[in-house]
Amino acid sequence: MDENRDRATFTEADLAVDFVRDNAKEYGRLVGWCKYLDHKKGVIKKQGELDSKKTTVAERQAEAETSAEYKELIKEIKSSWQAKATLETLLKAAEMKFELYRSSRRGDNFL
What we know:
Blueprint: H1 3-6, H2 10-51, H3 57-65, H4 68-105
Helix pairs in contact: 2-3, 2-4
């Protein structure tokens, strides 16, 4: 096993904690935005169905889901969830770096 991966320095742990702190607000914003967009998707779909002149439910749903507004929203949802997932992964890596530091220091009576 690579010795550099067995231990983390205090500086690395400190940077990891800073990263989590510095990105907490952005993560919260992304979570809220993703939830809002998912809600908005349902609203736009239902409004499209109500506005449709088609006769069957399936036709109204299809028309609503193929509208330009709905398609554009789907792209925005995809982009937002990708950004959220990327930040979640980076935050998890920072947490893991801090935990590596903690576990590597246990025998030193620091924590």
